[in-house]
Structures are given as structure tokens and as C-alpha cells.
């Protein structure tokens, strides 16, 4: 293990506490309740844009990251584009080498008996074999997880029903619409209920938003990390971690995060026709009764705007009817 020499720098108190928890978990010889332990993780990429002929430049994508996820817990991973979420997932799954630090996964050894152990990863990029059908993908994964053929058949038909994938069971992956391909990747990650599940923006493009995720999250038998941009999905998680520029800025409950960093949304309105301004104002107050007007924008209290998906649908309907 390459030791991480990065000083943690200034960290929020709950981030420091989490680092301490990881340190004591690493020092203990007792079996831990933590299933995923990420200890002082660092990832450097070669920065191709900044490289010259003589000098290789490095880009640090993840700096000195420590957290743990215990059995039964789902940790939401939030953060802006490029903050390092996918990099963290790839390092935990083992398909990307770490630059420094270590990842410990307890109880998901490949040698575990069928139905126990294992790791399910739904990466951001669909990792599918173009020529294999949905059923063949599911069967291949079930075989790798050591399931008996008969058990796998039952599980596959249940999963296909839950995710509304039945009509695509014989479709080769290359012909699947994007949302269905995403569903298949998600199905592969939960097939057989692996001990560790990693979901990187799994529901992007899915038409059955939220629901399969909810079912998976509620199963609670294992430890999971869900990287998401959806507040609804984040609300399903037991804790959330916020990553900014490769560093952990917050870890704890979503409620506390909301309380600490935000109480309202900002809605910007661009008018095609200035004469419509009063009608639009009335419509916005109808949708969000407590919206406060501020020149060209509105401050909307969070309670008025949640769930966000519904707010977006209402706004889109207003745009279609040209009331907004
Ligand atoms: N293979 C690579 N080579 C060089 N830089 C990379 C590589 N992969 C990612 N990066 C850089 O590392 C940083 C973290 O990227 P990463 O994809 O992990 O972020 P992310 O939070 O998952 O973003 P997004 O939400 O857009 O997927 C970014 O600045 C990205 O440009």
C-alpha cells in the first residue's frame, strides 16, 4: 500500500470524525461492522493537456479521502461535475489502481458461498457486450456469482419484471434504447444481492425513475454507494457525502446538509416578450406560492419546490402552454 502523504488540510468537524473512525477501524483487529472502508485515498491522472515533451503533469482527481459504509447503509455521493465521484467508484470496485491509500471491502470475497459476498457495480458508462442479449447478460453474471441455473432463472424473471425489462429479454445490448441499457446495467449490479453495491448515476435516462432504486435501497441487506444528481434519490440514502475537487466537504444526513447550506432554490426567468411579465408572475406564484421576486429571478423555498422532478414537470407544462 502506497501511503498517502497529503495533509488532510482544513476539514469540517464531521469529516474529521469520519477520518478518525476509519483510522480506528483500520487499527482494530476485530471484525468491523464497516463493509466498505476507504482510507486516505488518492488518485492522480496524467494531465494530457498540460503535458509537454519533457515534463509529465499530473492531475489530482481525489486527494485524501476517508469514509466508511456499514452493513445496511446506503451512502449518497454528491458533488459537481468532475469532483471525482466516478474515480472513487472505480477505485472501490478495483477496476482502477489507486495512487495512494487503500480500500477494504469486508465479506465480499469472490470465494464466498453463492448468495453471499460479491460486488455489484453499475458504472456511469454502460459496460455491456454489444452482441449479447439482456437475458444472456443476466445469465452470465448469475453464473459468475455462482448461482444455480434454476435459482438464476427465477431471479432473472423477477428482476426483469420489477425493472420492466421483459420485452427486451432477447434484445442484443447494441439495439437497446439508452434507458433500457441503463436498466440492464443496474439489474446486473443488484443481481443476487451482492454484499457491496456501487451505483454511479444509475437512473440517468431510465423511464421508471426512482422506483427500482427505491426497491434496491430499501432491501438494506448490504452496503451501497449511490452517486446521484437527483435530490429524490439522495433522500433515499442514510447519509450523504459531498465531494468537491476530490475532497470530502461534508458527510452526514441530507437534512443537516440542507439546513447548513441551503433553504431555497433560485429560478431565473428569461422573457421572450416583456409584455407577458405579469402573467408569468401570476403563474409562478400559482406553482410556488411562497416565491419571492428578485428582479429577473425568484427565490423559491425548498418546501415549495420538492420533489424537484415535479417542479420541473410543472415548469415544462407551463412552457408548453406558453404561460411561462
Ligand atoms: N482517464 C482520465 N484521465 C485524465 N483525467 C481524468 C480521467 N478521468 C477523469 N479525469 C479527471 O478527473 C476529475 C474527476 O473526474 P470524475 O469523472 O471522477 O468526476 P465525476 O465527479 O464523476 O464527474 P461527472 O459527474 O461529470 O461524472 C475530472 O477533472 C476529470 O476530468
UniProtKB/TrEMBL annotation:
Gene3D superfamilies xref list: P-loop containing nucleotide triphosphate hydrolases
Subcellular location: Membrane
Domain of life assignment: Eukaryota
Region described as Disordered: spans on this chain: 1-27
CC terms in the record's Gene Ontology section: membrane
Keywords: ATP-binding, Membrane, Nucleotide-binding, Transmembrane, Transmembrane helix, Transport
Signal listed as a keyword: no
GO MF assignments: ABC-type transporter activity; ATP binding; ATP hydrolysis activity; lipid transporter activity
Topology within the bilayer: Multi-pass membrane protein
Sequence intervals crossing the membrane: none
Residues in ABC transporter domain copies: 36-270
Pfam families (UniProt xref): ABC_tran
Principal place of residence: membrane
Family in the record: Belongs to the ABC transporter superfamily. ABCA family.
Name the UniProt record assigns to this protein: ABC transporter domain-containing protein
Native source organism of the sequence: Anas zonorhyncha (Eastern spot-billed duck)
